[in-house]
């Protein structure tokens, strides 16, 4: 079997503060960190030799200690609505998905934080094959940089980020937080914190930890059911972190930060989309500073779930709104290019297994 060499430390792994510490260790002035960030995230170069305002000796040190993340573009699918879905190959042969979505208010990138996923949601293609490994911060950063490079010729920029791709970001907490710090830094891509959303399936200890980070980054929770029994059936993670504990962590977040929380609810035909489910959910969320995002489930052949009829979706929304629960229905994008998380990677894995 061919062995794959471990890469050097990826330069995209380095927050500005960590880069300053490294420069001190190398007996180099710390102001160089901001220059390096400018080359990486403003000029978006691919080679340390291009950092022409750095001394040659420093460029040589950078080249010796670091390397750039290589995302090999295996597949790129473009939807009629402008959505672009990438399947990227990593240095170790694994593959991940990234999606660039075009909205009337700007361009959004949906990033992946893990190769595969172990959460086991029964309606999601990302869990097929289980979890292979965590991504490091640099591999998450590179997804946004790659999308931005695609936009560069037209003068557009990435204006928002959603951490809703494959994997559970709060089970890869440190790398996810480093990624966020790099994204929001004024010397880097400088994405506004309120234009970034991190989504979790309800990893309760990490939810409390994130609350204490004191950021303006949006938090979204995948719930998909109004009670423990149904949620455990759809989301095995609920057996580790029961629904009541997730809701308690959400209330703590709202109380401490004063920020609204988003609940994501995938509607599955005949499973969790009945009026009684909407009534029960409304009771759970009563009085909370929250917003419910209803998601018509994407058909995944391996899961055999069906979509909720259109009128039933609107009725579910009406019931929540009657109880003063702010509710929207997610606009679908990339429906013609296997846009559901994990579908493109699953097809790639299947073809490689033949």
Automatic annotation (TrEMBL):
<dbReference type="InterPro" id="IPR004383">
    <property type="entry name" value="rRNA_lsu_MTrfase_RlmN/Cfr"/>
</dbReference>
<dbReference type="InterPro" id="IPR040072">
    <property type="entry name" value="Methyltransferase_A"/>
</dbReference>
<feature type="active site" description="S-methylcysteine intermediate">
    <location>
        <position position="341"/>
    </location>
</feature>
<dbReference type="InterPro" id="IPR013785">
    <property type="entry name" value="Aldolase_TIM"/>
</dbReference>
<feature type="binding site">
    <location>
        <position position="124"/>
    </location>
    <ligand>
        <name>[4Fe-4S] cluster</name>
    </ligand>
</feature>
<dbReference type="InterPro" id="IPR027492">
    <property type="entry name" value="RNA_MTrfase_RlmN"/>
</dbReference>
<keyword id="KW-0698">rRNA processing</keyword>
<feature type="domain" description="Radical SAM core">
    <location>
        <begin position="103"/>
        <end position="336"/>
    </location>
</feature>
<dbReference type="Pfam" id="PF21016">
    <property type="entry name" value="RlmN_N"/>
</dbReference>
<comment type="function">
    <text>Specifically methylates position 2 of adenine 2503 in 23S rRNA and position 2 of adenine 37 in tRNAs.</text>
</comment>
<keyword id="KW-1015">Disulfide bond</keyword>
<keyword id="KW-0963">Cytoplasm</keyword>
<dbReference type="InterPro" id="IPR048641">
    <property type="entry name" value="RlmN_N"/>
</dbReference>
<dbReference type="Pfam" id="PF04055">
    <property type="entry name" value="Radical_SAM"/>
</dbReference>
<feature type="binding site">
    <location>
        <begin position="167"/>
        <end position="168"/>
    </location>
    <ligand>
        <name>S-adenosyl-L-methionine</name>
    </ligand>
</feature>
<feature type="binding site">
    <location>
        <position position="121"/>
    </location>
    <ligand>
        <name>[4Fe-4S] cluster</name>
    </ligand>
</feature>
<protein>
    <recommendedName>
        <fullName>Probable dual-specificity RNA methyltransferase RlmN</fullName>
        <ecNumber>2.1.1.192</ecNumber>
    </recommendedName>
</protein>
<comment type="similarity">
    <text>Belongs to the radical SAM superfamily. RlmN family.</text>
</comment>
<keyword id="KW-0819">tRNA processing</keyword>
<dbReference type="InterPro" id="IPR007197">
    <property type="entry name" value="rSAM"/>
</dbReference>
<keyword id="KW-0408">Iron</keyword>
<dbReference type="InterPro" id="IPR058240">
    <property type="entry name" value="rSAM_sf"/>
</dbReference>
<keyword id="KW-0489">Methyltransferase</keyword>
<feature type="binding site">
    <location>
        <position position="117"/>
    </location>
    <ligand>
        <name>[4Fe-4S] cluster</name>
    </ligand>
</feature>
<keyword id="KW-0411">Iron-sulfur</keyword>
<feature type="binding site">
    <location>
        <position position="199"/>
    </location>
    <ligand>
        <name>S-adenosyl-L-methionine</name>
    </ligand>
</feature>
<dbReference type="GO" id="GO:0008168">
    <property type="term" value="F:methyltransferase activity"/>
</dbReference>
<dbReference type="GO" id="GO:0032259">
    <property type="term" value="P:methylation"/>
</dbReference>
<feature type="active site" description="Proton acceptor">
    <location>
        <position position="97"/>
    </location>
</feature>
<keyword id="KW-0004">4Fe-4S</keyword>
<feature type="binding site">
    <location>
        <position position="298"/>
    </location>
    <ligand>
        <name>S-adenosyl-L-methionine</name>
    </ligand>
</feature>
<keyword id="KW-0949">S-adenosyl-L-methionine</keyword>
<keyword id="KW-0479">Metal-binding</keyword>
<feature type="binding site">
    <location>
        <begin position="222"/>
        <end position="224"/>
    </location>
    <ligand>
        <name>S-adenosyl-L-methionine</name>
    </ligand>
</feature>
<keyword id="KW-0808">Transferase</keyword>
């Amino acid at each position: 079997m061919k062995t794959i060499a471990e890469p050097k430390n990826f330069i995209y792994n380095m927050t500005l503060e960590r880069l300053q510490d490294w420069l001190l260790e190398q007996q180099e002035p710390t102001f160089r960190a901001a220059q390096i960030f400018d080359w990486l995230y403003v000029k978006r170069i691919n080679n340390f030799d291009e950092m022409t305002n750095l001394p040659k000796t420093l460029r040589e040190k950078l080249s010796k200690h670091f390397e750039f993340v290589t995302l090999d573009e295996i597949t790129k699918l473009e939807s009629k609505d402008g959505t672009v879905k990438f399947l990227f190959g990593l240095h170790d042969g694994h593959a991940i998905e990234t999606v660039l979505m075009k909205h009337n208010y700007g361009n959004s990138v949906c990033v992946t934080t893990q190769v595969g996923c172990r959460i086991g949601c029964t309606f999601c293609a990302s869990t097929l094959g289980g979890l292979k490994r965590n991504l490091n911060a640099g591999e998450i950063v590179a997804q946004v940089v790659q999308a931005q490079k695609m936009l560069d010729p037209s003068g557009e920029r990435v204006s928002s980020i959603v951490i809703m791709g494959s994997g559970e970001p709060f089970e890869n907490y440190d790398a996810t937080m480093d990624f966020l710090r790099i994204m929001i830094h004024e010397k880097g891509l400088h994405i506004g914190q309120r234009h970034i959303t991190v989504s979790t399936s309800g990893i309760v200890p990490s939810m409390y930890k994130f609350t204490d980070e004191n950021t303006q980054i949006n938090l979204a929770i995948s719930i998909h059911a109004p009670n423990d029994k149904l949620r455990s059936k759809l989301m095995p993670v609920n057996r580790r972190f029961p629904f009541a504990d997730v809701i308690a962590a959400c209330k703590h977040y709202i109380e401490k930060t004063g920020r609204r929380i988003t609940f994501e609810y995938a509607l599955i035909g005949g499973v969790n989309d009945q009026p009684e489910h909407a009534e029960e959910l409304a009771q759970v969320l009563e009085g909370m500073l929250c917003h419910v995002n209803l998601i018509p489930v994407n058909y995944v052949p391996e899961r055999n779930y069906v979509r909720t009829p259109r009128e039933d979706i609107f009725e579910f929304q009406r019931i929540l709104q009657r109880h003063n629960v702010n509710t929207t229905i997610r606009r679908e994008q990339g429906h013609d290019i296997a846009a559901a998380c994990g579908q493109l990677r699953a097809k790639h894995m299947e073809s490689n297994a033949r």
